[in-house]
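Hi! If you just cloned this repository, the fastest way to understand the data is to look at a raw example. We've pasted two of them here, unedited. The first protein comes first, obviously.
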Amino acid sequence: MNDSVGVLIAVALGVILVATLLFLVIPEPAGRAVVATERLDVAVLAFRNSSSWSNGEETLRSRVESRLVNATGVDVYSRAQLDALLMERALSDTGITNPTTAIEIGTLTGVTKLIGGTVYAITTTAEETTMCGEWVDGDCVETIPATTYRGRVLAQIEVIDARTGHIEQSMDVGGTGSTTVRSGSLFDGYDALLAKASSEIADAVAEAVTSTYTRELRYGLYHAAEPKRDGYVGQGTSSRFSKDDAPTLIVHFTRIRDDDLFDVVWVAPDGTAIQRVEDVVDVYDWRVYELDLAGLPSGRYRVQGFLNGTAAFDQPFSVAP
């Protein structure tokens, strides 16, 4: 078999693979809604450090706080105000697991969740290896000696309900940072790798918080919906419809609990509810809801979604004469 035939076979296999993936994958609707199951006002307390990493507790706290600030559905209490309050009230050394202290902090700040923890171990390693020293046309033609440096951080994290003082989550989390450099080249030290490891821990903490206390769904408004495997694909995403259309709402419940309650309300231009659908849904369910425009006036309409009674989205659309 010559090279040209081999290339053609490879291209054909690639096309088949892409076509198979396109057939299997159901595209998500464009809209994304995150609904908090309860009020999530979070305060990140100062972490403790029983490891050999100097200032590791502050690095980890900063990464956790930053990740939570950027998490949808979570409000983070100001660190400066929190630290000043704890110092003023002499609460900083009483221990996060003390229920009375937790409740007092919650009362003073209005937060509902306290997050704290301990950096209890780090490991740093250097391992001899090789790396590519020269590439030609995408192929490595020369390998050279190198060293892979790794830094690992282990931490114990607690999430406490500031209204009851109860520990709701306690997790041991680890993160790793690594880099490979040419032998003889300057290595900047392990601090950057340990900071990267802390970012992995922060991601895990944010994921644990959001997955426990929030729900997520995807939604979109279309001219029509077609079944695809276990879901639906929208046809012609739009916010403008004519009297001959039937606005079609597709909802995919990507992170909820089984038997959650979901309501869809179609709202007329004058603000009155013209149609309401009450549903019971499970995680990964797909649902399609349609509005019959027959006999309805033109104007600006809305479709609203509520998960367990909490507003998830409010999508406007227009109906032309």
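Ok, and the second one:
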Amino acid sequence: MNKENLENFGLKMGKWTMKAPYSRARFWSPETRATIDLLRPFTLAAPLIVSMSIMVASLVFNHQKFGLAIPSDWHITVAQAGLTIAIVNAASNSLNQAADVEADKISKPYRPIPRRLITRDSAQSIAYIFYLFALLRAVTINFWFGLFIFLIMVFTIAYSLPPRMKKYLLINQIWIAIPRGMLGILASWSVFGQEHLFETPTPWVIGGVATAFLIGGMATKDIIDAKADKVTGVRTMINTFGTKTTAYVSLPLMIFPFIFIIILINLGLLARYLWPLSFFSALSFLIFYLMVKEKESKTLENVHAWSIMYVTYIFFALVFSVLTIFNDILPEFLYL
């Protein structure tokens, strides 16, 4: 594709990144693109990939351990449940922007509501429609999946709307880590493992590891918003203690959950073949370094540390899934 054709294709597609200006494209209007941006597609990759990975791992795990029959349409169930979890996150993103308009005018004026392409009320309505659709879809899969999706909704709504847990120091990081870590993993595991959910510690321990990591890692999202959060009465570690101090506090929270995997294996709470997951502690040092640098991405909405934090979580789930699915053919050294 030559330069002229590339430019023509760009005009058809409109803006490519969140921070680019809105322009009228051949394929969609600025308002349509603004609606897509409202859902923040990049952040939906993590829940979608993580949830689908955990679902497949759960299917194989429960087949091997409890003799669960593998349904012929398992891939359809995985796709539907994964999409449901992604829709809940899209609803959360839309509601969060509706609630954070004043802060976004300061730190993220490129978002669709500050640019007046979407109204606050419209964004909130979109969120409620998505929440309702996700809940109705979730309860058709099974009871436990529906319950966990409902709990995720409660946490994300209470984060943005009164009692607005987002504004409370330390609580805000824990509050948002629970639905994205523990509840998200348990919801995914319950798609196929609901009957034996309380008979194995694996999903609970993996969910706990993910939650602990996210409690530390979620501090990265507050770096860009430090000034806006302070103006709007939101207390975060970043705007209270500074980025450098927050990075040093967050580092052990990101490292130790992965290191403790070895201890959890020795306690019999995790299978021995999962010990390679402890190597993800190394990526925590990279996140720490990027937090201190505070370098903002030119295309994504936040600093590079925030992006790497999400990528780390995605690959943690992928590696866990691969090790679980292929545990019977893994090299012998992985069982040491």
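That's it. A detail worth noticing about the second one: The chain has a mean pLDDT of 90.
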